[in-house]
Every structure is written in C-alpha cells, then in structure tokens.
Amino acid sequence: MRKKQVGMGMIPAFLVLGAVIIFATIAVKLMPIYVDYWTLTRIINDVVTEDRDEDPTPAGIRRDLSSRFITNRVEAISLRDIKIGNDKKGVVIDARYEKRTPIMFNIDAVVRFDEALFVVPRS
Prior knowledge:
This protein is of the alpha+beta class and 123 residues long. It is built from 2 helices and 5 strands, in the order ααβββββ.
C-alpha cells in the first residue's frame, strides 16, 4: 500500500459536485432576468439620449418605448408598470421593479432593480 493517498475521496467529490450544481442552477435561473434588465436599461438610455425636434412628452416617450419593447422582446416588465411623468427637469421614466423566480423546490430568488430611474431632459 502507498503511504500517502493521492486525490479526493468520494464524499468530498460529491460535496464539490453538489455545490457546483447548485451554483450553476442559480446562474441559469438568474441570467435571463439580468439580460432583460440590461436590455431594458439600454432601450431607455437610447430613448433618453435620442435627438428630438421638440420637447419630450410622456405620451411620446411611452410611444417610443412601446415600439422598442416590441422590437427587443422585453418581457421582464410591462410598459404599464413603467411610470412616466413630468418633472421640472424633464420627463421622468421610473422603471424600477422586482422579479421573482423559482430556483429549486420551494426556494425563490427575488431580484430588485432600483437603479432604473431616468430623466429625459427638456431642450
């Protein structure tokens, strides 16, 4: 027999494999939520930085967002859930939301996106 064992035993190997499976499952479940959020913020940033001939209105911003949501297949948040209103600085787009997704068994993950507040400045 060898005096020194080399390698990992069966129980530690299963523990490492279990941890890898759990983290991979969490990553697979959460990635679409973050991709939708990145798409949403890109769309809203495009609308905010878009050149306009006239001052922006909430109805015009909503119309621009609607067409871009359809084109980019944004499904994480509905356009009805986005609050668009006037402010002293311009038109405020409040797209803050939270998304819940089941991970495994009766464990859910709740992801909140609080940074999705944008202002379309007046000219």
